[in-house]
Write a structure and sequence with these properties.
By secondary structure, the chain is mainly alpha-helical. The protein has helices spanning 9-21, 25-38, 43-55, 59-72, 77-86, 91-100, 105-117, 121-134, 139-150, 173-180, 184-196, 200-213, 218-230, 234-247, 252-264, 268-281. Helix content is 71%, strand content 0%. The longest helix has 14 residues, at 25-38. It starts with 8 loop residues before the first helix and ends in a 5-residue tail after the last helix.
């Protein structure tokens, strides 16, 4: 039996995420609204809708979305962090985010910015140090610390609000095994999580497991193709998009992604054909 999610809430959610990454924030909101309509308890969709509204400058509405996400999931650390940004750097919200997720370097950075704005430089530096301890590669924390140490007039930068796919959690080995045991759909979601962490090789392994259990799983082929594209394996990525289209000829995202990979191969005419087909299938995206 063909596995299709193109009409369910997860697909609308994924489409909204893709549109956000293209900076098409209003269209992203529309997709998240469709996801929420199908599942009013979809806390991640409220969170992502809030982020798009924030980038559209609608801070009040974005806060309302974060509140809904938190009401549905009181342990949702990222929603507290995002609400803190929309409230113009609420230390209280960042504290809650850190309480729920002590490993959140993003919340530490943002709390540091709040202290900087209050001219509490020593406390700001402490938060940046904590962020650097959690994420030694964080150039943002390092630069922000430099602003506070040197009292530069140009202020530090908050950690941007980035959307996330559903179930985008840091998994331990034990929780990975428990999560995967629930079936093919969870291989797919875990693959998405790993892909968003730029762990593309590991994500490919998860998509392969999903495909092994469901050989006609169009979305798994598509997302595996995205990982291969990020690894600059454009020919192999196109092969995956072709499989995605084979099993779901109405997958506009597969056509879009194939078009992008073709562009990187300088096959511009074919790339345009793919994008034209995507527009034909889903004109509201463009």
């Amino acid at each position: 039996m063909q596995q299709k999610f193109d009409k369910d809430n997860q697909t609308y959610f994924d489409q909204g995420y893709s549109l956000f990454n293209q900076k098409l924030y209003a269209k992203s909101v529309q997709m998240q609204d469709k996801a929420i309509k199908l599942d009013p308890h979809f806390s991640e969709a409220y969170n992502n809708k809030g982020i798009s509204l924030y980038y559209l400058g609608d801070y009040e509405q974005s806060i309302q979305m974060y509140d809904k996400a938190i009401n549905l999931n009181p342990q949702y650390a990222k929603a507290y962090n995002n609400k803190g940004i929309s409230l113009y750097h609420s230390i209280q919200m960042y504290d809650k985010a850190i309480e729920l997720n002590p490993k959140s370097s993003e919340a530490c950075i943002n709390k540091g910015v709040s202290f900087y704005q209050l001219k509490r430089d020593e406390e700001a530096i402490q938060m940046y140090d904590q962020a650097i301890k959690l994420d030694p590669d964080s150039t943002l924390a390092t630069k922000n610390k430099e602003y506070s140490v040197n009292n530069k007039s140009v202020g530090p930068t908050v950690h941007k609000q980035n959307q996330e796919p559903a179930h985008a959690t840091q998994f331990t080995q034990e929780t990975q095994e428990n999560y995967i045991s629930k079936g093919v759909k969870n291989y797919y979601y875990l693959g998405d999580t790993l892909r968003e962490q730029n762990r593309n090789e590991e994500a490919i392994q998860m998509y392969d497991l999903a495909i092994k259990l469901s050989p006609q799983f169009s979305e798994a082929y598509n997302n595996k193709g995205e990982c291969l594209h990020q690894l600059k394996q454009y020919v192999e990525a196109i092969e995956m998009y072709d499989q995605a289209i084979k099993y779901n000829p109405e997958s506009s995202m597969a056509y879009i992604h194939k078009g992008v990979s073709l562009k990187y191969l300088r096959q511009y005419e074919q790339a345009i054909q793919m994008l034209d087909q995507a527009i034909k299938l889903n004109p509201q995206f463009f």
